[in-house]
Amino acid sequence: MPDQTAARATAAVTHASAIAHASAPAPASPPAATPASARLRTAFPPLLAAWFLTRLWLVPAALKISPFVGGGGLDPSVSKVYTGWYAVLSGGSFPLHDVSWQYPPGAALPILAPGLVPGLGFGHAFIVLAALCDAAIFVLLVRVARRRGRSLAGPWLWTVGLAVLSTMPWNRFDLHVTALAMLALVTASARHAWAGRAFGAVTALAAVIKVWPALLLAGTARGRRTRTAWAAAAVTGAAVTAALALAMPNAFSFLSAQESRGIQIESVGSLPFHVARHLGWSGTWAAKDGSHEFVGPWVDGVSVAMQVSTVPAFGWLLWWRRRSDRTGARVLPDAALTATLLFVVTSRVISPQYMVWLLGLAAVCLLRGDTTQRPVALLILAACVFTTLDFPLLYRGLRDDASWLSIANLYARNLLLLAAAWLSARRLWRGTVPARRPSAPPSR
After folding, report:
1. Taking the domains of the chain in order of start, what are their residue ranges?
2. Where does it live in the cell (predicted)?
């Protein structure tokens, strides 16, 4: 009898443990990777290798320490122009009689920054800081793409496009400005109450260095987002400008330098004059206002026409703002790219570094799969190829000899930019402006 009782007790315990084991929740298994995240992990190593290898070649080449470029001095933009500005700015004043100083007061910040780098001369420190800006942009793009499960098309465009432009980007302070503009656009997409104010503040900081980032404000959503961003931009811009103006005299000397700008030989307005040189036109080029510009008959008229052409371009932007639905997150970067393209193609100057701006904005657009600007980004990348062929490879033939090969290359580049501006505006309109429905016929 005791044996039977013990057996029954053992069976009851076994049965109870089996029930408890069956009812206990199974240990959580790690979540399976989504196809999108798996693709991102697979695509990242080639992207990182491409960025690292291109920069491993281009940055030393800009520093003139690469075995592939030999010796020689740094790019004249750094060794002469920027070094001269640094000497004046570090002495406590903005350049007053230097016609090449045509920038708002905030441009003093990237020019003075190399002086804070220990152990390096101005030129090498400037290029190192530009390389750090490029690295920061790459990290920003990859971080946003990987965190939100998006495409790596944006980081790829930045990696390849900047490499196509050769060493030029690291010899200009446009990398600094573009980094701020891209940061502003990425910040605006954050889901925080402070995102609008931060976007406006960073945009203003970039705009007081070079004016064009103010165009980022074109795509802000109606109502509170516009009021918040524009107010933050106004306060920040005014505060930074006032601080610099109080710290150093001649802060607004750049305004008078801008008044005398003519038609730079790489702009859209220069195209007819390159052909006219072969048809008996009596004009020529001259080193003027910090660039090479055409001088002679009809130049002033074309210069006025280029300035006037900005009126319908920005009038269209205002009309688009009135008609468009700007609630989507993709609208802000898409509109920024459209506005900047319109600014570039109607400008009297198209310097090679303008392509850095367009690449940066296009890369931010490509972070979103629903962007309207994907084919525009490809046109910009193609324009980068012709830009590098133009400067520095074919530049002397364009300027001195009016070579037909150089002229054809410039036409190709500028026509690509015109096509990009037209396509960008067209796709932005179609992607944001609701179609008007035909009104119903009156009932009888």
Report:
1. 40-432
2. Cell membrane
